[in-house]
Amino acid sequence: MTAWRKSSYSGDGDNCVEVGRGVGIRDSKAPTAHVPVSAQAWSAFLRLAAAPVEQ
Fold it and tell me: What is the pTM assigned to this prediction?
């Protein structure tokens, strides 16, 4: 069984995206389905999300 995590910014709400290590991402409103994401793709996403925005 995968331990799914959501952002601490989500609070107690159930309207968020969750991440399962080694599994992928899913919508908390539809937890039976998920999108597989490789470790390399997830790392690339995190790098881009953390990068400063160019103007």
Answer: 0.68
